[in-house]
Amino acid sequence: MATTIKVSAELRDRINADAREKGVTAARLIEKLLDAHERRQRMEAFGRATRGAESEYWDEYREWDVALNDG
After folding, report:
1. Helices 9-22 and 26-51, interaxial angle, to 10°?
2. How far apart are CA 41 and CA 47, in angstroms?
3. Ranges of each domain in the chain
4. At CA 52, angle to CA 64 and CA 58, rounded to 5?
């Protein structure tokens, strides 16, 4: 199912040119860009969560890391 979205002619041309350059459709280009954006958001949230973790978490993390690498 196709849906039309309103964008400026300039943006439409930029999307189409970039898609052509990459050898994909405009829809696939937008999908890939959105996927990358959503991944970045998840990674940033993960970073914030790990930076906010308490020291007990990191102590246990190191213990497991050593145990798993011990073979």
Report:
1. 90
2. 10
3. 9-69
4. 15
Length of the chain as a residue count: 71
Indicate the pTM of the whole model: 0.69
Mean pLDDT across the chain, nearest whole number? 92
pLDDT, tens digit (0-9, with 9 covering 90-100), for 20-47 = 999 999 999 999 999 999 999 999 999 9
CA angle (51 as vertex; 47, 65 as ends), nearest 5:
90
Q: Please, is 24 exposed, middle or buried when counting C-beta atoms within 10 Å of its C-beta (0-12, 13-18, 19+)?
A: middle
Rounded CA gap, 66 and 58, in Å? 12
Q: How far apart are CA 50 and CA 43, in angstroms?
A: 10
CA distance 53 to 40: 20
Token pair of 18 as six digits: 């970039």
User: Which pair of structure tokens corresponds to residue 35?
Assistant: 């996927």
